Amino acid sequence: MRDAERRLFNSLLQAKGVATGRRTTVRRLSDTRNSPLSYSQERLWFLHQMEPEGAAYNIPAAIRLKGNFRPAEFRRTLNEIVRRHEVLRTRILVKDGKPIQEVLDVTAVQDRTDPSHPVLNSKGS
């Protein structure tokens, strides 16, 4: 946003009574290993309990990659994404009858980049 647009946007927000100029940051919890679920997570967990094989929140997609595939770089990229985003390492457990989230330690993505792997073999063999 350009400065003029930002000033206009802030003045419109202030006219509606919305505070501007200060940023809110989400603080990292000191121990995220066993945290309670957010309301959204709890809702999804409940729906999963009702229909474990349900796929209502799954979005199937496939991407065809063209060009020279470099397995080492691909694996390094996936590992970095998993390292940065705890949500990709989070699982839900039940402890004392209540669901909790457990953030797993960072581990390397398994090597399934072998061209003979059925998922990566475009010939379907």
Structure, described:
By secondary structure, the protein is an alpha+beta fold. It has a domain at 27-103: Chloramphenicol acetyltransferase-like domain (Chloramphenicol Acetyltransferase). 31% of the residues lie in helices and 11% in strands. It has helices spanning 3-15, 39-50, 71-84, and strands at residues 35-36, 90-95, 98-103. Strands 1-3-2 form a 3-stranded antiparallel sheet, with no helix packed on it. A hairpin with a 2-residue loop joins strand 2 (90-95) and strand 3. The longest helix has 14 residues, at 71-84. Mean pLDDT is 78; it is low at 118-125.
Brief synopsis:
This protein has 125 residues and is an alpha+beta fold.
Helix % is 25-40%
CATH topological fold name of the domain at 27-103: Chloramphenicol Acetyltransferase
Proportion of residues in β-strands: 5-15%
Query: What's the architecture of the domain at 27-103 in CATH terms?
Result: 2-Layer Sandwich
Largest sheet: 3 strands, antiparallel
Shape: extended
Mean pLDDT across every amino acid position: 78
The chain-level structural class is: alpha+beta
Could you give the distance between the termini?
51 Å
Secondary-structure element pattern, one letter each: HEHHEE
Low-confidence stretches: 118-125
Count the E strands.
3
Look at the structure and give the CATH class of the domain at 27-103. Answer: Alpha Beta
Tell me the strand order in the biggest sheet: 1-3-2
CATH H-level superfamily title of the domain at 27-103:
Chloramphenicol acetyltransferase-like domain
- Count, helices: 3
Rg, nearest Å: 22 Å
